[in-house]
Specification:
The structure is a homodimer. Chain A is of the alpha/beta class and about 230 residues long. Helix content of chain A is about 50%, strand content about 15%. In chain A, the strands form 3 sheets. A 4-stranded parallel sheet of chain A has the order 5-4-6-7, with helices on both faces. In chain A, α8 links the parallel β4 (about 135-140) and β5 (about 155). In chain A, α3 packs across α4 (about 50-65). The longest helix of chain A has 19 residues, at about 1-20. In chain A, about 40% of the residues are buried. The interface between A and B is large, with 53 and 53 residues. Chain A binds a DNA duplex (30 and 30 nucleotides) through α4.
DNA sequence: AATACATTCCAATAAACCTTAGAATGTGCG
DNA sequence: CGCACATTCTAAGGTTTATTGGAATGTATT
């Protein structure tokens, strides 16, 4: 039966994508790459895995066409091969979050008050940020901020917060965000700020989650509206 | 570092879902299950794989919580554990379709004229079907039709078409659909009908694709509006 | 109680995958 | 040119996964 063979071929091709997302390390790489393009070494240190291993995993991702690479001097810069890959990652994560109790448990354990935004709270946050009623800070490394950030957010990488406290207005509410729900930088930042007497909270949204809701993202000072889903 | 360990835990959980979709056979099972719940034996014969192997794959899917099972007499009926699983499958397929040239090639080889619908052509098809200007036929097995079908479609399983030709009006345009782009039943049905002198074409949409566009689905004569994405 | 049937469990083998270490490639810089 | 550096390739180990056959479970039927 020729239909059987060609059908098998089709599912096999989709399974190439499936296999690519079947490893925790590769998922972490996808998560990191949704913050913007990165060199192999950067990925390795961000994900805390050996460079050689990162390279091997990137090869798998590249063969499944989820990422693309370009050379820049001595570095090789990897990027997701489309915004649909971000959606796929978010989709996988949301399925896992919805159906795997273990994941929800681990998330709760990790973060004391996991504030998950709704459509309304996002809209109101955007409005308050526009009015200057709250200060939104992006605590990721600055390169990631430059690649794209929430509207009206200012960059204040976690590592620099302590010595840049003077930049923050004492009375105002501060909202910190980072790479998304699996990232703990905003948690840490908010904790630190509260210790220092600020009124700070964190949100679990990152740029990808925000954009997936159809909300605008800024890059290099220019406002860009990200397409909703793929 | 405790953050590292808990982070690993999170990605590992999502990877459970990734691993579940890393096999062509399991993807085919998900595709079949998005047509409605099915017993193990049915899945085995639909996917042309051994029952024991189907059972093993279903176990993996169940452990990743993508499917659920219930007993009904001697049979065990499997179903997707939510409509977000259908979205995940569509998402994976669309990523593969967009990025893997091999898949597009295989699809083109398989089907002479792969008519892919757009938002407009879907709306116009729906309208014409409502008006009775075209006859939409669902050529899947009748159980699947009963579980949910396109609006105004009538059930005419591929196996029965030949002896039920009299039910079809000779002049009118006939539009056949089946399980989606990876399914060849509508292709075959349209070919057969054209041979018999009818004006017939197929569309690649199945119920899942149609519903994912936010369009209504009927089941048991009752119109149901499926939620868009998860 | 005995049989038929659908499905799962168990064990075994081969193939695929992850990871690490060491060698190789290719680029920029002195 | 030769050295330093980022990255990839190759090889080898240990582990996991896919598949198959045979035994076991649990439900309906007689």
């Amino acid at each position: 039966m020729k239909t059987r063979k060609s059908k098998d071929l089709l599912f096999e091709q989709v399974a190439r994508v499936g296999k690519a997302v079947a490893s925790p390390k590769r998922l972490e790489l996808l998560d990191l790459l949704s913050q913007g393009e990165k060199a192999v070494e950067t990925l390795a240190s961000d994900a805390a895995i050996d460079v050689k291993l990162v390279s091997a995993h990137l090869k798998v991702l590249k063969e499944a066409r989820l990422v693309e690479a370009r050379r820049e001097g001595r570095f090789i810069i990897y990027r997701l091969s489309g915004s649909d890959i971000v959606s796929l990652w978010l989709n996988l994560r949301s399925v896992a979050e919805k159906h795997l109790a273990e994941l929800r448990l681990a998330l709760d354990l990790m973060s004391a008050a996991p504030e998950r935004l709704t459509a309304e709270s996002r809209a109101s946050l955007l409005e308050k940020a526009r009015q200057g009623e709250v200060i939104v800070i992006d605590v990721r490394p600055e390169v990631e901020y430059l690649a794209g950030h929430l509207p009206f957010a200012r960059s204040m990488p976690l590592a620099e917060i302590e010595r840049r406290l003077a930049e923050l207005p004492p009375g105002k509410e501060i909202v910190a965000y980072c790479r998304g729900p699996f990232c703990l930088m905003s948690e840490e930042a908010a904790g630190l700020l509260r210790e220092k007497g600020f009124r700070a909270r964190k949100i679990t949204d990152g740029v990808a989650e925000w954009a997936a809701e159809g909300l605008p993202i800024e890059a290099y000072g220019t406002r860009i509206r990200h397409a909703r889903q793929q």
